[in-house]
């Protein structure tokens, strides 16, 4: 099977078509999964059947179509190459309101290095192998053949968009597309920095007259902390939300009885920081969880 790419020139680019659907169908025919974007360069919101994942859809799915909803739901996961879906009534209504087109790079076997400003572009020209480039409003998209995981802010002004992400289609671009280099893959690997601040912990006030957890055993608490660490470590997306929900779950069980120690909280903060969270975010998530529970 031929590797689908964006290298086939779309006649005149997107600007030549009064309807984004026409360009979308051309891209889909080359094997590039597409979806419409509304004002603000964002996907259309989920319908009421899919709101809050009520449909049972799986946003972390690596293939398109997380549910059988006929609408344009679940952002990047809705991207498709099926012309019957693209021209269905629900999608046609979305295309009429669309202001631009997005595509799922990973679904097309591609990786987009999104360079957000002139400094990022200058860095790429000195650091990365040349490939097909597309001009954006403030910078450039460098498109490589090959998929990898998507990571935002790998350095100042640089995002990687591939699997489980979408990128705007801004025309066919120029230059020859090359294979995804190790230099780009390496950007997604966060190496621990010796200068990283030590995780900060917050002391949890114990209930008056209670210095231990009266309703749980120490072994139960230790298992709970270990499970919380695992939950944070396993998060592949929505890390911020996962950290907050995990902190909330731990505090709802042990936040009032005085059993949590600085060592326990440090373990949670360390797990979050390993996933790329800052100390500030850990502190904010912990404080917000305590506020929610009235602690």
Shape: globular
Mean pLDDT over all positions = 79
Number of strands: 9
From N to C, what is the helix and strand string?
Answer: HEEHHEEHEEEEEHHHHH
Detail the poorly predicted runs.
1-5, 7-18, 58-65, 192-212
Q: DSSP helix count?
A: 9
Biggest pleated-sheet summary: 5 strands, antiparallel
Write the layout of secondary structure elements.
Blueprint: H1 20-29, E1 34-38, E2 42-43, H2 83-86, H3 89-97, E3 100-103, E4 110-115, H4 118-127, E5 132-135, E6 140-145, E7 151-155, E8 158-161, E9 167-169, H5 182-187, H6 218-233, H7 239-254, H8 262-274, H9 279-293
Helix pairs in contact: 6-7, 6-8, 7-9
Describe this structure in words.
- This protein is of the alpha+beta class and 295 residues long.
- It has nine helices and nine strands.
- Strands 5-6-4-8-7 form a five-stranded antiparallel sheet. The protein has a four-stranded antiparallel sheet with strand order 2-1-3-9.
- Helix 6 (218-233) runs parallel beside helix 8 (262-274) and helix 7 crosses helix 9.
- The longest helix is centred in the last third of the chain and has 16 residues, at 218-233.
- The model is unreliable at 1-5, 7-18, 58-65 and 192-212 (pLDDT under 50).
